[in-house]
Amino acid sequence: MTTFTYTLANSLAEAGRAAADAETKLIAGGQSLLGAIKLGLAAPEALIDLSGLADLKGIRVDGGHVVIGAMTTHATVAASHEVRRAIPALADLAGRIGDRQVRNRGTLGGSLANNDPAACYPAAVLGLGATIYTDRRSIAADDFFKGLFETALQPGEIISSISFPVPNKAAWQKFKQPASRFSLVGVFVAQTAAGVRVAVTGAAAGVFRFTAMEAALQANWSAASAAQVGISASKLNGDLHGSADYRAALIPVLTGRAVAATQ
Question: b/e per residue, 221-236, with b = 16+ CB within 10 A?
């Protein structure tokens, strides 16, 4: 039987001090952590619950950015009029994460901190060139995701909000594993002020930008252009749900569908 102490954090500073202990885990929505504990993959001595911190929740439009608190649930993002008006692709992505229970419990910050290689939100964050704000600093999306379940977060560092720049165009396409509803492959495309960005999740050890596809779409924003860009399967995942070659074939197909959805 797994035992641990449980504390509902009263402040971000209190949570940060407690989380500096290697045997302590922060819990947001708990959709990943509680499952890991049940399977014996995690055995923290203490849990610090962030759900009581109102400052970490909410959505606001600030100039040309949509700022979302780290403890905002997927369901809230999906239903938000502000998000649906400014970045409808982001609301679409949030509305297709997991099932209703996951969407009503899981949080944006929890998803990013966990950085599951098949999670949906990392593709939106990287695809839009978002900025992750913590209790210590700001981190650009390109610097945040480091690999399999690994991020730039330091011990005890807590995500407070994420700022998404509003793109000219954006869309999300996902080929899901039907039981878990994680992405076998997911592709987020965006025309941003800095150029075209294409982020892929589910296909490799972590979310990544498909730079060759970005260059092709920068030159010609069309599904036909996307279909001409292949990707090597050598660094992609292969498992019982789909081989690396299968995932490599899906990436340009889903990219083309995403581009078509913006037209």
Answer: bebebbeebebebeeb
* Contacts (Cβ under 8 Å, ≥6 apart) of 179: none
Residue-wise pLDDT tens digits, 125-144:
999 999 999 999 999 999 99
The answer to pTM > 0.85 is yes
Residue with tokens 């039981």: 179
Angstrom distance (rounded) from CA 133 to CA 263: 32
Q: Average of pLDDT values for 30-59?
A: 85
Spatial distance between the Cα atoms of 79 and 86, rounded to a whole number of angstroms: 13
**pLDDT for 166-177, tens place per residue?**
999 999 999 998
Beta strand 5-8 with 46-49 is parallel
DSSP labels for 164-192? EEPPSEEEEEEEE-TTT--EEEEEEEEEE
What does the DSSP 8-state code read for residue 152?
A: S
Task: Give the residue extent of every domain in the chain.
Answer: 169-261
Neighbours of 110 (CB within 10 A): 25
The region, left, alpha or beta by phi > 0 then psi within -120 to 50, assigned to residue 58 is left
Architecture of domain 169-261: 2-Layer Sandwich (3.30)
- Among 167, 31, 192, smallest CA distance to 90 is for 167
